[in-house]
Specification:
Blueprint (H helix, E strand, L loop, with lengths): L1 H13 L8 H5 L4 E10 L10 E4 L5 E3 L5 E7 L3 E6 L6 E5 L5 E6 L9 E3 L5 E3 L7 E5 H6 L5 H4 L8 E4 L8 E4 L13 E4 L2 E3 L9 H4 L28 E7 L3 H6 L7 E6 L5 E14 L13 H8 L15 H6 L3 E13 L3 E13 L6 E15 L3 E15 L12 H8 L24 H7 L1 E21 L3 E22 L14 E24 L2 E24 L13 E24 L4 E12 L9 E10 L6
Parallel strand pairs: 1-7, 13-16
Antiparallel strand pairs: 1-4, 2-3, 2-5, 5-6, 8-9, 10-15, 11-12, 13-14, 15-16, 17-18, 18-19, 19-20, 20-21, 21-22, 22-23, 23-24, 24-25, 25-26, 26-27, 27-28
Helix pairs in contact: 9-10
């Protein structure tokens, strides 16, 4: 109990975000000495340029240069250096007073217990000490197997996270559930944070719903959207990502507020390192093929066909079973490629990372494909020894042609047409004269729909974030730093949907010839500020933070539908009937938070307490604050012999 009272006394005397230190310590000029060393991998022996070196029990730290070497000034006494690198176990090395050089060979951390993961808005902690669940996915894991998007890359890599495709079309997005179903009619997608800035993962309607009647009577549904849309997080270039962290527990809401009730996915992009400029190139080629067919029933008699399709099948029935519509529609081999280039380097003061991506995915169904092109530039600039400025920019352009394969209530979807009218004796492919035969069973000829129905989407997106971090005050045992992060995420989405008058599938549904033009703009803006105080205790540390977070979201999506187009015309002003729909949303969120972390008893006991207060214009009283408390305790038992 005496030891515990000693810790409590130290913390209470320092106060929350303490700013007082012993005056004698300010006056005393501590003599220092220099230690040099090299950090390598224990197995391969290669240098580890990303390692960090810290003097245990102090705030003194230094980075490792590209050649694996480091130089650090330490007090004139025997010290213990703790050397750590991402993916490796930390290594403590005691350096006597008469020793000036060290060699450190780090061991791979296969279980990641020593990995440093997020514990607050601006703080991190070793995983082994945390009482909350944080999943991580490294750069190597993301790049090990090629995937169509970032969200698909998380599948099977995060415990408890369920990732499922919401479409089989090229460029289709995915549904990520971290905490299961948390609402009946609301969104259940997690919050995405890229380099400290909240980005949009909204899925906007494409404009096909009026034609498919999946949600009857609506042009662009805001809820229960079944338009085969894509999640916007799929726009990111997975080659640019250094690490993904997933907050799965209820503590996510205590850190990021009510919008994080479905979990948080934190994405950290790659940054430049001091050293000579290095280049990287990744080229991948692939193909897509039909992996499995449902199969079509072979009808051996006219009566058997009539029992399924009705009397309309009697006159056309033949004993042929050679027309496999699945093979004819989906049997082609679609090519795919992606080219990624990057460069990084710089000096100790200025570092940069730049990349570019060109990606194409072909679809096995006629008229379907997806393309993505992106450019990223990240720059870090040291201003003196106390201030670091960072700028992250990315521009992405994506294009999709998903076809019409989603849910519907009128038989327009191509898979539905095969299921309801895929008679084994019918050959509905395009004839030599360019015409398509009519199906005697249903109105939809899936080959004609695949050839004539237009469903195109183009997205232009820019993501910019900036960070300024200043070391306001630092001594051997404590430090006070200020971090301000701001950024914006802006994208425009244009959709063109066209069902020409000659399309069989929509005959008798309103006026023949329909065109939908959709244009949407989404803007997310964030400003965050954090004040963090670190204090080194005997056998532990104290980390306190306070801060504020503000976010503005502006969505403006307009859809114009016209019917009764004259053959060959597609302009929305050339129809006989026009309908307009607009989705307008403006949301402002503001949050305030404070957190204290005490790591005691030789870094075995972790006490965490925090409180977040949020207010949002989504509530009827936009000025009312809602509170999210947070408390956790963990104790790490010593290893038994």
């Amino acid at each position: 109990m005496r030891t515990l009272r000693h810790y409590v006394a130290v913390v209470s005397s320092a106060g929350w975000l303490a700013t007082a230190i012993v005056p004698a310590a300010l006056a005393q000029q501590v003599q220092t000495r220099t230690i040099t060393g090299i950090v390598t991998d224990q197995v391969g022996g290669e240098a580890l340029p990303n390692a960090q070196v810290r003097v245990v029990g102090t705030m003194i730290a230094a980075g490792v240069r590209p050649d694996g070497r480091f130089t650090i000034s330490v007090p004139m006494r025997a010290v213990t250096l703790q050397i750590r690198s991402l993916g490796y176990k930390p290594l403590p090395i005691t350096v006597p007073l008469d020793q000036t050089t060290v060699r450190a060979a780090l061991e791979r951390d296969n279980f990641r217990l020593e990995e440093v993961v997020v514990s607050g808005q601006a703080t991190a902690m070793e995983r082994k000490n945390l009482a909350t669940a944080v999943g991580t996915v490294s750069e190597e894991e993301l790049a090990r197997v090629p995937t169509s998007s970032v969200d698909r890359a998380l599948e099977g890599k995060v415990t408890g996270a369920h990732v499922s495709e919401n479409s089989g079309a090229p460029g289709g997005g995915s549904i990520v559930r971290i905490r299961g179903v948390t609402t009946i009619i609301g969104a259940f997608t997690p919050l995405y944070v890229v380099d400290g800035v909240v980005v949009s993962d909204v899925q906007l309607a494409t404009g096909t719903n009026f034609l498919t009647e999946a949600v009857r009577g609506q042009l662009a549904p805001r809820v229960d959207n079944q338009d085969n849309g894509a999640n916007r997080i799929a726009d990111l270039n997975s080659y640019d990502i250094e690490k993904v962290e997933v907050l799965k527990g209820a503590a996510a809401a205590a850190i990021y507020g009510s919008k994080a009730s479905n979990g948080v996915i934190l994405i950290t992009t790659k940054r430049g390192r001091a050293g000579s400029v290095q280049f990287g190139l990744t080229q991948r080629l692939g193909m897509s093929k039909l992996s499995r067919k449902y199969g079509l029933r072979c009808f051996t008699s006219a009566d058997e066909a009539v029992s399924v399709f009705g009397e309309a099948a009697r006159a056309s029935w033949t004993p042929s079973c050679d027309n496999d519509m699945e093979e004819q529609l989906y049997g082609k081999t679609a090519g795919a490629y992606e080219t990624s280039v990057n460069m990084h380097g710089g000096s100790e003061a200025t570092r940069f990372f730049a990349s570019a991506l060109n990606k194409h995915d072909g679809g096995i169904m006629p008229g379907t494909s997806a393309d993505k092109r992106s450019i990223r530039v990240n720059v870090d600039q040291n201003v003196g020894s106390r201030v670091t400025l960072s700028l992250n920019t990315e521009y992405v352009q994506t294009g999709r042609k998903p076809g019409v394969t989603q849910n519907e209530n009128n038989g327009l979807s191509i898979p539905s047409a095969i299921g309801y009218g895929g008679a084994s004796w019918l050959d509905l492919r395009q004839r030599a004269d360019g015409t398509f035969p009519r199906s005697p069973i249903i109105s939809n000829n899936p080959f004609q729909t695949a050839a004539l129905f237009v469903n195109d989407e183009t997205v232009n997106r820019g993501i910019v974030s900036a960070r300024a971090q200043a070391q306001l005050w630092k001594t051997e045992r404590q430090a006070l730093r200020l971090s301000v992060v701001g950024g914006g995420d802006v994208f425009t989405q244009k959709n063109q949907v066209l069902a020409p008058p000659e399309l069989y599938a929509l005959e008798g549904v309103g006026l023949p010839g329909t065109s939908v033009l959709g244009y949407a703009q989404n803007t997310n803006r964030n400003v965050n500020a954090y004040l963090v105080h670190d204090f080194t205790l005997p056998g532990g540390t104290s980390t306190a933070q306070v801060g504020t977070q503000s976010e503005w979201v502006d969505i403006d999506a307009s859809y114009t539908l016209t019917q009764g187009l004259i053959g060959g015309l597609t302009n929305i002003d050339r129809g006989l009937a026009v309908r307009v729909d607009q989705n307008r949303q403006r949301v402002q969120d503001q949050g305030f938070f404070a957190q204290e972390e005490l790591l005691l008893f030789n870094e075995r006991l972790l006490l965490t307490g925090g409180l977040r207060a949020d207010r949002t214009t989504n509530n009827s009283n936009s000025q009312q604050l809602f509170y999210y408390p947070k408390a956790s305790v963990s104790y790490r038992l010593p290893r038994l012999p």
